[in-house]
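Lab notebook, design round three. We kept the backbone fixed and only want residue identities now. Task for the bench partner: fill in a sequence for the structure below.
Input structure tokens:
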């Protein structure tokens, strides 16, 4: 005997997840305010990670559907070929190549 699970409505999703996501938005706003307050904030704003973050925020607002997939792809390394040597490489959470010329 299997139980059928019905998905929640959009209103139920809003009621269930609103406060958690409101807190996340406040955390993001705080993060961006911190960057703005630091000396040399322009150097941080020129960093590929900051640019990726801002672009991701725009995708969340402007993209009508598939937001999750589009944001994940934005942060992903889309290069097809292998690298010669991974020694010394570390994860950045965003792909620097996304902001090189031609990408």
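Proposed sequence:
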């Amino acid at each position: 005997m299997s139980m059928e699970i019905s998905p929640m409505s959009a209103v139920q999703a809003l009621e269930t997840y609103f406060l958690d996501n409101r807190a996340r938005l406040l955390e993001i706003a705080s993060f961006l305010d911190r960057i703005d307050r630091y000396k040399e904030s322009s150097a941080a704003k020129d960093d590929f990670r900051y640019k990726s973050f801002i672009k991701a925020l725009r995708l969340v607002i402007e993209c009508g559907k598939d937001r999750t997939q589009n944001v994940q792809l934005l942060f992903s390394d889309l290069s097809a070929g292998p690298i010669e040597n991974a020694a010394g490489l570390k994860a950045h959470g965003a792909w620097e190549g996304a902001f090189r010329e031609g990408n």
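Keep this in mind before ordering anything: The two ends are 52 Å apart (CA to CA).
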